Amino acid sequence: MFVVSATPLCWFWLGTNQNQRVLMSHTSKPCFSEPLLPSNTNIPSSVVEASNSSMSQLRVYVRRRNKRPKITMQLQQDHNLSPTHHHKKVGLPDIEEFAYKGENQLNQSSKSAVGSEVTLMESEVASCRLSGESPAHWEKVLEGIRKMRCSADAPVDTMGCEKAGATLPPKERRFAVLVSSLLSSQTKDHVNHGAIQRLLQNGLLTPDALNDADEETIKKLIYPVGFYTRKATNLKKIANICLMKYDGDIPSSLEQLLLLPGIGPKMGHLVMNVGWNNVQGICVDTHVHRICNRLGWVSRLGTKQKTSTPEETREALQRWLPREEWDPINPLLVGFGQTICTPLRPRCAECGISELCPAAFKDTSASSSKSKNYRLKKKL
Q: Where is the signal peptide (predicted)?
């Protein structure tokens, strides 16, 4: 141990090892200097005593030789810290994007949506939760949408999942609705309706027939629905489960439905509503999710931000929408989203509730500006 004196700074060299060097200074600013004297230099004892007497006023600065000390995970384990998660912007979800993960699924998704920069304590989150107050003028908005939907000219009105197997006996119809719900993910209504009709015409819309059918045959019949290969596999699994556990019928509870391969909350609620006439929640698809956010009807738990998934939208909507509206809200908004409030270039000029919609004409102007820019680039 030796002490190096230099004007106007005084450095006291306390020691060194392979990983770090420690310097003590009287100044408030760190200065990482190499020792000016060799290690065998004799230092007067008076200087050492002076340094010991002022030790309580010294500042310690550590310089590590390794550029990236590998102690992050250890510190996190010691302090029970969770590593930072980086969230990606989600485009079209996979068909099992909303697969059931248990009753804590919403809480986990809400915590991850807050982000890594701001962390709230549980008590703070509870105090920030929405009180469930209904949005202003929601009844007028809903009545206006009903008037625009009175003609029932949307694809969902004739080819929706709830129309599958309408002429079949109740038991067979429930299975047809379940199959139609599975095939409907990321698939337009007319494509899904065509696949159901082909299965029906070939006698493959029952658990026994699907269980015995070749998977390649099922693929050909349901093509071109989205993810038809995976859906064909799931159809055979579901048919086998229905035969083995439910005597050829479908599960009669939401929890059991959500355990079936490829079945998520949106599909489960639809099957419960249509197949068993048991409304346990709102069926929220991309149309309902989009429209509710445009109308300002929903927001993330404890914030004023838009919901990021249909499942978040379902939970937010159920906090204030009267229960008698839970069943009819899906076909009403789906048809509205197919005809007026479309994903791209919504027809706000034709909408009867545009004066009550906070998003009116915003998406329209954005879409038109993008198309103009595209045409200009194409000319150039």
A: none
Q: Which of 67, 88, 220, 266 is catalytic?
A: 266
Token pair recorded at residue 242: 């229905």
Q: What angle do CA 200, 203, 206 make, to 5 degrees?
A: 85
For residue 193, give its domain range.
164-276
Q: Is 325 found in the same domain as 300?
A: yes
The tens-digit pLDDT sequence of the chain (380 residues) is 444 444 444 444 444 444 444 444 444 444 444 444 444 545 555 444 544 444 444 444 444 544 444 433 343 344 443 333 333 333 433 333 333 344 444 344 333 433 333 333 233 323 333 457 899 999 999 999 999 999 999 999 999 999 999 999 999 999 999 999 999 999 999 999 999 999 999 999 999 999 999 999 999 999 999 999 999 999 999 999 999 999 999 999 999 999 999 999 999 999 999 999 999 999 999 999 999 999 999 999 888 899 999 999 999 999 999 999 999 999 999 999 999 999 999 999 999 999 999 999 987 654 444 444 545 454 44
Mark whether 147 is an active-site residue.
no
Is position 37 within any domain?
A: no
Residue 204 maps to a domain: yes
Long-range contacts from 8-11, C-beta under 8 angstroms, 24+ separation: 11/35
Q: How far is CA 297 from CA 86, 163, 221, 283, 357, in A?
A: 28, 28, 40, 16, 10
Whether the Cβ atoms of residue 148 and residue 340 lie closer than 8 Å to each other: yes
Q: Is residue 92 part of a domain?
A: no
- Which residues, listed in sequence order, are joined to residue 22 by a DSSP beta bridge? 15, 62
The structural domain count of the chain equals 2
324 shares its domain with 304 = yes
Residues 271 and 307 in one domain: no
- To the question of pTM greater than 0.70 for the whole model, the response is no
CATH code: domain of residue 302: 1.10.1670.10
